[in-house]
Task: structure prediction
Amino acid sequence: MTLHCHRIIRNAHGPFAGELRLDYESRLLRRKRLTFDAGDFLLDLPEVTSVEDGDAFLLSDGRRIAMRAAPEPVLVVTGDLPRLAWHIGNRHTPCRIEPDRLIIRQDHVLEAMLRQLGATVECTDLPFSPEGGAYGHGRTFGHDHGASHDHGHSHDHHHDHA
Result:
């Protein structure tokens, strides 16, 4: 019998029947077979969902599987944090903001830019859970309007990158 999951429990508390570790990109899910430490199940959610560290998958047999953010290659950035955060945000890059450091996924172009701006940059592996942004819960979803719909607002989106 195939186990199914149709619901995510946010900020879940144990007991858990198992654990599943996924990196940042792999945590944007809707329908997919997932394997955890004690088996597998078919995830079938009503819409694309960003599953976060600390959430749980509620299986069809009532068990809960803990979701943990897997370590992945990141850059840990220190220095003039407000200035560095502005440059990272200006590039619409997902970023974890902590009191004494910024964490972004490894990117050699951004690494070079940050070093040029005077940042100290450490390459390491850590679980990555960036800030959610104004519109996404844990994601900075793109903002794109197709030209084929009709409603009462303008599609002029000006970004001043001076």
Notes: The beta strands are 4-9, 18-22, 28-36, 39-50, 56-59, 64-69, 71-78, 96-98, 101-105, 120-127.
